[in-house]
Hints:
This protein is mainly beta. The chain contains 5 helices and 12 strands. 14% of the residues lie in helices and 42% in strands.
Amino acid sequence: MLKLRFQVFFLSAALGSIAVAQSAHFAETRVLPTVSPAQAPAPAGELESVLSKMDATAASFRTTQADFVWENYTKVVNDTDTLTGTVYYRRTGKEIEMMADIHEPIQKYVLFHQSKVQMYEPKIDQVTVYEAGKNRDEIESYLVLGFGGGGHDLLKSFEVQFLGTEKLDGNSTAKLELIPKSQKLRGTLEKIWLWIDPERGVSIQQQFLEPAGDYRLAKYTAIRMNQKIGEEVFHLKTTSKTKYVSPGG
Length: 249
């Protein structure tokens, strides 16, 4: 059975990397601790304002579309892979769907739908299917991280700090630091930085830092919220000869 590594979650909003097919598998299937609202630390001041705005955005979230640049840095070889494209999100009932249309350096599509992550490579006409299984809720939580996910919901799984304001491309953002409460997850993910647009309550940049010094950096522009996205966007444009493979067997 496939052990999902953290990079699967970075395919979006989170998620943000094709490392699902390029890197080692997650050492152990993890379960994030359940924290009741009474256990969550009470934020104050600037942090409370940012989390509340994210809550308001999540309450009205239907769709999001954005252009992206995803950078995957590997410290041991001091090398950065860069992907560019467009990502789409939508809420259907209680479920979140995501399609990443990767334009460069080679055309690929990544779809999260019905508990599956599917990566379609038109050049070889192949779809690689990853079953989310028990990790479905976790994947969804990373997909909406900063894009329709509630601010105060972050307190259930992370220690959250407000690091101040920072300018990105001339825009003022609120920078948050998220440190996983799960010790098991900390072995793979040291921390997350989110740069939140305080007006819209969405992240325009995300950085996932790993203990070994590797990181995943996602930059989002041309963010369009709650606009109509055609049904065809969330379907892989395969052919009658497309081959389907599953690393999980």
